[in-house]
Prior knowledge:
- This protein is an alpha/beta fold.
- It has 17 helices and 23 strands.
- It has three domains: about 5-165 and about 290-365, 3-Layer(bba) Sandwich (FAD/NAD(P)-binding domain), CATH 3.50.50.60; about 175-290, FAD/NAD(P)-binding domain (3-Layer(bba) Sandwich), CATH 3.50.50; about 375-485, Enolase-like, domain 1.
- It is globular.
- The mean pLDDT is about 95.
Amino acid sequence: xxxxxxxxxxxxxxxxxxxxxxxxxxxxxxxxxxxxxxxxxxxxxxxxxxxxxxxxxxxxxxxxxxxxxxxxxxxxxxxxxxxxxxxxxxxxxxxxxxxxxxxxxxxxxxxxxxxxxxxxxxxxxxxxxxxxxxxxxxxxxxxxxxxxxxxxxxxxxxxxxxxxxxxxxxxxxxxxxxxxxxxxxxxxxxxxxxxxxxxxxxxxxxxxxxxxxxxxxxxxxxxxxxxxxxxxxxxxxxxxxxxxxxxxxxxxxxxxxxxxxxxxxxxxxxxxxxxxxxxxxxxxxxxxxxxxxxxxxxxxxxxxxxxxxxxxxxxxxxxxxxxxxxxxxxxxxxxxxxxxxxxxxxxxxxxxxxxxxxxxxxxxxxxxxxxxxxxxxxxxxxxxxxxxxxxxxxxxxxxxxxxxxxxxxxxxxxxxxxxxxxxxxxxxxxxxxxxxxxxxxxxxxxxxxxxxxxxxxxxxxxxxxxxxxxxxxxxxxxxxxxxxxxxxxxxxxxxxxxxx
Length: 500
């Protein structure tokens, strides 16, 4: 609890906070002050309509993103990327004989930056916005009331935005041995020498690479035959090779059988491809999926249905109680901060504007990009090949290797590709995957194109600055344009070129 964490707590869960006197009835009560809840509360209070808005948070305002997710993870990923650049320095003509990793300083920087950002999500800021902030456990008492301790809040509409937490696999001995999740790993002050990561999804891969670069001996155990099972197999293969090259030990098709604490560390017995073995580590990091935070809400009292995947909602984000909506990780298949933000905006429109005669917005209309922040990054939007096949849509795919993009070559960042899927016989973009050093920045061009029905032809005719890695997108669009040239057109162009 250094000065930075003290500043964080003072902002997002002030020890001296006094809950306000509740209004007679709220236009909107929001349970959960993560990204979705904050956007709904701030948006509703900022409409200038004089709405009474209450926001309830039992732990830390800012939710996972600020405290134990996006902000801390990307902060230490930045430190790890610097190490990757130092490893590559000789290729760039820079001789670095020796460098040291100060793990304590890396984690101190994390805490400092997190505390700097925390004001935007602070209880004081939302009080200034006109939101009644209640710190405590929110529970439904009925279909139109929520309790926070002994206080009853009546509402016209309510929003559930309680998020998710790390799912803990039922592994014998794991609880007794102890483990880390995203909620605790960013509190480390000493570097574990040997770290096992269970789960090869985005979180597991990001943190496995990061802690490997920070000097840990990392073993990544994944139940599938390839990491990042939901990504394009070619993209996952590139990252898999990078991790192996950097020294991360991959154990695929793995099933962890038992964890036992020994004198030399935590012993993990596992089976992989009909072979049983044991590894000894100092810490175990769990990155094997998420589970919704629902247990303390008493949803049955409000007539809200839920299952192990979260709150059940329709396309308008209404629950089975039409007065109550949900947003964010607690109900979405996309568990990203930007998805929570987008869902919150849908809730504001559907809960507050639709009753006044405005139209409704649908979740199914969203075009959702996502990024795995490894090095290289993997970004995706829209359909994959398999999605298109399952939909029965005929498609073609255009792939441009980053090794054919001049800026990637000059940057020595050639592992990767731009892959665009388009409807066969049309330039309509159905989806895309980019593997590149800054794929997360590049994917927005294709997301914008898809949202605004801009096809490959217009992307081809758009001037892209040279040299940039974004030129890979233009090369893909140009490749599509070339497919439009029939033999007759090619012959005519050849004649015109000859006499010009």
